[in-house]
Amino acid sequence: MSSQPPHPTLLIPGPIEFDDEVLQSMSHYSQSHVSAPFVNTFGEVLTMLRQLFLTTNPASQPFVISGSGTLGWDMVAANLVEPGDDVLVLHTGYFADSFADCFETYGIKATQLKAPIGDRPQQDEVEKALKEKDYKMITITHTDTSTGVLSEIKSLSSLIHRVSPETLIVVDGVCSVGCEELRFDDWDLDCVITASQKAIGCPAGLSIVMASGRAIERFKARKSPPGSYFGSWKNWLPIMQNYEAKKPSYFATPSPQLIHALHTSLTQILSKPLEDRFRIHRETSEKIKKAVSDLGLKQLASKPENQANGMTAIYLPEGMTPPDVLPTLMKKGVVFAGGLHKEIAAKYVRFGHMGVSVTDPKRDDIDKALKALKEGLVEVGYKVPA
What we know:
Elements lengths: L8 E2 L9 H6 L10 H17 L8 E6 L2 H11 L6 E6 L2 H12 L3 E6 L8 H10 L4 E5 L1 E2 L4 E2 L2 H11 L4 E5 L18 E5 L10 E6 L1 H8 L12 H12 L11 H14 L4 H21 L16 E5 L6 H10 L2 E2 L1 E2 L9 E5 L3 H4 L5 H15 L7
Parallel strand pairs: 1-12, 3-4, 3-5, 5-8, 8-9
Antiparallel strand pairs: 2-10, 6-7, 9-10, 11-14, 13-14
């Protein structure tokens, strides 16, 4: 049994439910951030992140910095491109708009390649766009948390390397790393950003980035200094290299308790083959999506190949809005998220299914949620198809 106080099961697309051991490691006694024991823990975290991202290339560089996933956008915009550069942002929902806005803040010209809501830009469209302009970088949201749309990273990367080999490939993996297959080396990616509180299963507060050797070289060849002080790799790169080499180093104070929690969650994740983790998330997602279809409901991502494995965005029955449904689910001990895409926010809800809610066989979070969804809809007047 869990030692956590009774609480509604949190099934939003992050933060997610946390394992007891991860939460207990948050209560680690206070440590100096430059003490040998803490530096050792941080160094092991960086090494384990290489395993999570599936990179064995010694030129790859992990970063773990206090902040949210949003800080990852800042680090990409401040370090890997310069004012006046062109970047291509593949748009699959709300978070592409935000990434583009971040670029514009740094004086970088962001062009968005958009798809209809629930879909993703097609590869021939991407190829055409790359041939029309010299883009320094392309960004792809692996799973857009606002729509539940999954992008196909492997074939996109092959296309980009073929058509525009100098273009850096950046993946927003905030809602995918830890539940979706992602192979940093094999797919020849340049930068993947994520955060601690989603499928990695650690409380919010850590921005996590993996950069390729090519990305680091691009950073070192900048003509202008990075546009951020806190997010500058000029400041953070030597710190991360020193920590992984188990040498004390200082630029800004990390959170020792969060690093301990991340160490615990990564140890748990890597205790089993990552292929098994990807498979169980995929199988659970298929079960949920079948149940949603059996209720007569549609997803924002209508095509199976566009559907994420760590979350499902569900259109509500005609005439219903999230405030009609979410309080009923809460009374049944389940928390879903409302809609986020500004054009259709009142029409759908979001069900997050990643981390321990999926991988821990002792938990019944998913079955409980599906039962609550069916019963909750009936209670507010929906007739489930016979």
